[in-house]
Amino acid sequence: MYRFLSLLLVRLLYRFRVYGREHVPASGGCLIACNRVSRLDRRVLRAACPRPLIIAPDREWNVDDLTAALNRGEAVLLFPEGMLTRSGHLLAFGPEVEAILAKANVPVIPACTEGLWGSVLSYRDGRLGRKWPRGWRRHVGVMFGKSLNPSPQPPPLDGEGEQSQSPTFLLGKGVGGLGSELRLAVQELSADLAIKQSDFTPLVHRAFIRNAVRLRNLFKPCIIDNAAGEKILTWGKMFVAAICVTRFLRSRLGLEQNVGVWLPTSLGGALANLAIAFLRKTSVNLNYTAGADAVQSAAKQAGLRTVITSKRFVLRFALDLPEDVQRIYLEDVLAGVTKGRQIRTFLLALFAPAWFIDRVLLGLHRHQPDDVLTIVFSSGSTGEPKGIVLTHRNVGSNVEAAIQTIQILPRDRLLGVLPFFHSFGYTVALWAPLVAGAVAVYYPDPRAAKEVGNLVRKHRATLMLSTATFLRFYIRRCDVEDFRTLRIIICGAEKLPVKLQDEFLAKFGVLPLEGYGCTELSPVVSTNLPDLALGGVTQICNVRGTVGRPIIGVAMQAFTQESREPLPTGVEGVLCGKGPNVMVGYLHQPEKTREAIQNGWYWTGDVGLIQPEGFIKITGRVSRFAKIAGEMVPLEKLEEELHDLIGGGDRVLAVAAVPDEKRGERVVVLYLADLNVELAALLESLGPRGIPNLWVPDVRDCYLVEAMPVLGSGKLDLKRVGELAKELASRK
């Protein structure tokens, strides 16, 4: 009867789905281990489980009682975290699981819930039970995984068959013991569940419509554009502009699917991307900081016949494409919009319900999660640009997970300086504010430190994305009060040195946090966040030297490089990601796609490990190794050691490998005139730090350069660094 009442309550409150019920044994003892996000977890699990449950209370586990229940053949539900998560992350699992299984030889069933984070009885937004419900009858899912024995043999990651719902871990062999490995199993299961539940994630452009025509939003700021003077558009005006641009483009784009965008981080760039999405077409934001060859390669691969740009912008960044590629200028689009049309469209937003505009006016109900939303081309830092194909499912689920994890609120103001051709700029700076109902403050040049600092202070921005390179500009050129209003500043694209974090904190009073992602994962994977003290509990959310925990619905795991087998906690390997954010594939490159995605896991190429608490530590990159006399030398680690010896946060050198007749390869150092130490002394200091002699570069292989090659995002241009190193070394 109690289970029936729980099921009735859950069905009334939520649109409820259960996956993997068949994995729970019909009889006999079994231990079900689940994540803990809400006070409703117990009722939801009781309703989902096909048999009666004995539920262990939080933090009050009596190992003997639970063992006795398991040995009697009962099903026991345990929340190994021991308490509600304060951040939405999966917390570390306690040692009690190991103690229980030492006395009861029963199967362990990983389980997880999805959709309860953000409910009234969760800690999202910092309050438990003191907030309005987020939506009526939200989608909630529960998944049970296949049973795990204490030490099963994990199947290899061979790419054959359908996506597995069985976590692939070697329980009990990792640094944190069985508890940490079970935690990884639950983490992977949460990614499998997120993939299924992503069918119900609102498409990003439909979420914009819902926010834009909401009465309380119509006259509130939506975008503050500073690309050419300050221009503030309310949600109502943004809706009018987006609909008018959509109408103009509908008759001019015809049947072509892929549409180029040659615009900076600005109102115009946002409108172009919105209109293309409304038309069920695919945007291709071209990299205006790349060379002509890279732009032409991207346009050719995507088959572009039309590019949306502006007359003002092409004067600054010339668009070098064949004459048969049509150019549509936003100035012409906006000039053709009459005052009467603007008024009629605004009245539509004022009086028509969102569902009418969505379904009847725009026909967005026909758009599907697996429609391609955008093609993002890689920087080409290690070769010809690759087109990464991202669907509405990829971007929408990543945007929603980022909003839930970072807790982006309608009252936030996000400063967007990263370009839309950069995957972080596209997902987080463009779509996240439009979906969360927050304000986006745009400026097209992240290197203009004084202007960026002034904008943060003037508009009281609370969130900001950046890179380590840009932080160095801000430290040198911005005033101490410029960044005081920021509650979170997250840096990605390159490693964030701890010393640079300290320098920024000392000057501005704000600690930059390191995150991680890659375009193929839509792109946000993980991030550190400020520590939380809620409900009498302090939850550590920031571990410096790591890139944080995975965001909600994403799993990360280390695999062996050769055989691609999963590795336990704390063991270094190649990091792979899983979740609804994994790209569809590379444009017109099925072989590379099959090589990169196997069994649902995307092979990032980054080397690292997963700590017992779930934090990800990146130690290098597969492509950044030199093979010297048969030994693999990690160039990134060598670079970090040299910068650590120099002190300070500025990047003044880069390490590369060049061919060598005797030893296969040798290490070359490129350095700037800003280097304030003697080269010979610097290299000699590597030995006492434990660096093998084989790794230490010869002082004759160190070359002075005028500037470090960097990409538009501020990330080191590895391709150009390698070319420059070979060019300089060949002159000897």
CATH architecture of the largest domain: 3-Layer(aba) Sandwich
Q: Work out the helicity level.
A: 25-40%
Major sheet description: 9 strands, mixed
- Strand proportion: 15-25%
CATH domain fold name of the largest domain: Rossmann fold
The counted number of beta strands is 34
Model regions low in confidence, pLDDT < 50 over at least 5 residues: 150-172
List its salient traits.
732 residues, alpha/beta, Glycerol-3-phosphate (1)-acyltransferase, Rossmann fold, GMP Synthetase, Chain A, domain 3, 9-stranded mixed sheet, 22 helices, globular
Give structural notes.
The chain is an alpha/beta fold and 732 residues long. The chain has three domains: 146 residues, Glycerol-3-phosphate (1)-acyltransferase (3-Layer(aba) Sandwich); 350 residues, ANL, N-terminal domain (Rossmann fold, 3-Layer(aba) Sandwich), CATH 3.40.50; 106 residues, ANL, C-terminal domain (GMP Synthetase, Chain A, domain 3). Helices cover 33% and strands 21% of the residues. The protein is built from 22 helices and 34 strands. A nine-stranded mixed beta sheet has the order 8-7-16-15-17-18-19-20-23, with helices on both faces. A six-stranded mixed beta sheet has the order 1-6-5-2-4-3, sandwiched between helices. A hairpin with a 5-residue loop joins strand 28 and strand 29. Helix 3 packs across helix 4, helix 16 crosses helix 17 and helix 17 runs parallel beside helix 18. The longest helix has 21 residues. The radius of gyration is 26 Å and the shape is globular. About 3% of the residues have low confidence.
